[in-house]
Amino acid sequence: MHNNIILVFVAIIPVLLVLIAVYLMLRYFANQNEKQFDFLKANQDLTRLKLENDRKKDREKVLIPLRLQAYERMVLFLERINPPNMLTREMQSGLNAGQLQALVLKSVREEYEHNMSQQLYIEEKSWEQIKAAKEKIVQLVNTSASQVKPDEPAIKLANEILTFEFGAHSDPIEKAMLAIKNEIKNNY
C-alpha cells in the first residue's frame, strides 16, 4: 500500500506541475492580451480625438469667414438704419412727411429682412441688440411722424427725427455695435 501511495504521488506530481505551468502560461497570455487590448483601445481613442479635431478645424475654416462676414453685414445694416445715413439716402425733393415715413420704414424692413439669415452666425445676445436697435429706430420714426402732419414737407419729419436724442449710453445703434465688437473680441 505504501508503494501505491508513492506511485500515485509520482503520477500526480508531474500532472500538477504541468497544470501549474499551463495555468501560469494562460495567465501570462491573458495579461498580454489585456495589455494589447488596452493599447488598441487607447490608440483608437487617440485616432477618434484626432479625427474630431480635424473635423473641428475644417468646420472652423468654413465658419470663421462666414461669421466675420455676418458681423460685417450687421455693422453695415446698423450704419444703413442710422437716422442720418438713412435720411440722406431716402430724402427726395417733393416728398411729404407721410411719404418719407413710409419710405424710411420700408427701407428699414427690407434691410432687416435682407440680413435676417445672419443670425445663424451671431450670438443671441448680439442679435437681440441688433433687433432692439431696429425696433428703436422704427419707434423713433413713428414717434417723430406723430409730431408732424403727414402732408407737411418731408424735411420737417427729417428734422424731427434728427433732433431726437437717445441720451447717454442709450443709443441703440451704438449698443448693437458694441455688442458685435465685444463678440468679435471675445471669439477671435
How would you explain this protein's 3D organization?
The structure is a single chain. This protein is mainly α. It has a single domain, classed as Four Helix Bundle (Hemerythrin (Met), subunit A) (Up-down Bundle), CATH 1.20.120. The chain is 82% helix and 0% strand. It has 6 helices and no strands. It has helices at residues 2-81, 83-90, 97-115, 124-145, 154-163, 172-187.
Provide the succession of SSEs: HHHHHH
Total number of helices: 6
- Output the radius of gyration: 38 Å
Question: Based on DSSP secondary structure assignment, what is the total number of beta strands?
Answer: 0
Please describe the topology of this protein:
Layout: H1 2-81, H2 83-90, H3 97-115, H4 124-145, H5 154-163, H6 172-187
What would a concise description of this structure say?
The chain is an all-alpha fold and 188 residues long.
What key phrases describe this protein's structure?
188 residues; mainly alpha; Four Helix Bundle (Hemerythrin (Met), subunit A); 6 helices; 82% helix
